[in-house]
């Protein structure tokens, strides 16, 4: 079933045009080929070479069409080969392109490269742009973002112990990371390092620096790809053992690493939520399609059963509330208002709603719901993972409570209208 995207009367023409053009590519070029593009229909680990080669060739063809349509790299400014979209334009485009899982990569948005590209755009020098950003953008290099450590809570990034010390003109890095996504394919990692003592003077937020480390530097040891959801993965565990890189590989000023990570995550959370909404939208359409066609005891369609009608209403409410909360948050960010409570709220609410919507769609589809013939099983795992990645639920709840209480303690009640 194609995604039903029509112009939204409250949006400006440009956003509507971007959404319609994106939907055209998703509906006409991507959805009909999904099984062959990603090899869902077979066991991808054992897929024959010709199936893998066909998928690759089809993906390239679609990427060319995306470029011709002017929809390549929505996250990047024009001078770096992207669409140069505003924040809201990008957010609204994401809900459309995420209707088909994996489609983002066909539009030039591949995590973690996309987050690294944005950090390089903002913090990189012209030399770093040329050496690292351009190859990432034209696809000749891959990258990873190496922050989380097995021995420290990722939910408190200021606790990291990976250390970088200056020795002449070089940073010397020692530490132990894991869950560095894309770790095997990456040509370089952006590594979050402690560059000042945790208990030394100065603010806790100013003691981190992000440093570019080429993967082939002596002392970079990939221990393993950490298996995830029962399957091998490229989320790598890496030991940095006396790794030496030139001083000019640091991103931004010494001590700006924490701020750079916050920049990456803040807007990124809105984009991720709009992606989740596109995926929920798809799961909803798939659920309804099955409810309208599956005959059960006595030949009645599933749609006539009240349990199932409950699923429709609950998923409708989940999607509407998730979508409107996210758009409200995006509008606040665009207007310059303080969006912190809203960012945390959507980071908690949207993945949980996504999880519920996909869960119901799986239930309706029965065994097919957990099979590789549909995108639902991978969506389900993705939704569950999102409750941990980019800041787990509990940490965001703590932040919302802090922000609310701080305001009441200051003698002012919360204003839900602003
Ligand atoms: C598939 C996947 C890909 C990832 N990719 C990357 C990547 O590319 N690069 C990278 O650096 N990292 C990556 N990560 C790591 C991710 O960012 C971390 O898992 C996340 O930040 C949580 O950190 P943690 O796993 O150490 O959990 P912890 O911080 O140990 O948290 C465990 C639990 O404790 C709870 N908790 C923590 N503090 C409190 C508190 N004060 N009160 C109550 N509860 C609390 C948390 O909410 C959570 O539920 C990835 C993770 C996954 C699953």
- Provide the low-confidence segments as ranges: none
- Strand % is 5-15%
Order of helices and strands: HHHHHHHEEEEEEEEHEEHHHH
Termini separation:
38 Å
Biggest sheet overview: 4 strands, mixed
**CATH H-tier superfamily of the largest domain:** Butyryl-CoA Dehydrogenase, subunit A, domain 3
CATH T-level fold name of the largest domain: Butyryl-CoA Dehydrogenase, subunit A, domain 3
Which molecules are bound besides the chains?
A: flavin-adenine dinucleotide
Strand order of the largest sheet: 1-4-5-8
CATH architecture of the largest domain: Up-down Bundle
Question: Which properties best describe this structure?
Answer:
alpha+beta; Butyryl-CoA Dehydrogenase, subunit A, domain 2; Butyryl-Coa Dehydrogenase, subunit A, domain 1; 48% helix; binds flavin-adenine dinucleotide; 418 residues; 3 domains; globular
Q: What does the model show?
A:
The chain has 418 residues and is α+β, with helices and mostly antiparallel strands. It has 3 domains: 13-109, Orthogonal Bundle (Butyryl-Coa Dehydrogenase, subunit A, domain 1), CATH 1.10.540; 143-251, Butyryl-CoA Dehydrogenase, subunit A, domain 2 (Beta Barrel), CATH 2.40.110.10; 259-409, Butyryl-CoA Dehydrogenase, subunit A, domain 3. 48% of the residues lie in helices and 14% in strands. The chain is built from 12 helices and 10 strands. Strands 1-4-5-8 form a 4-stranded mixed sheet, covered by helices on one side. A 4-stranded antiparallel sheet has the order 2-3-7-6, with no helix packed on it. Strands 9-10 form a two-stranded antiparallel ribbon. A hairpin with a 2-residue loop joins strand 2 and strand 3. Helix 8 (257-293) packs parallel to helix 10 and helix 10 (340-365) packs antiparallel against helix 12. The longest helix has 37 residues, at 257-293. The radius of gyration is 22 Å and the shape is globular. 39% of the residues are buried. The model has no long low-confidence stretch (mean pLDDT 94). The structure holds flavin-adenine dinucleotide (FAD). Flavin-adenine dinucleotide (FAD) is lined by residues 112, 145-148, 153-155, 179-181, 228, 235, 385, 388-389, 392-395, 398.
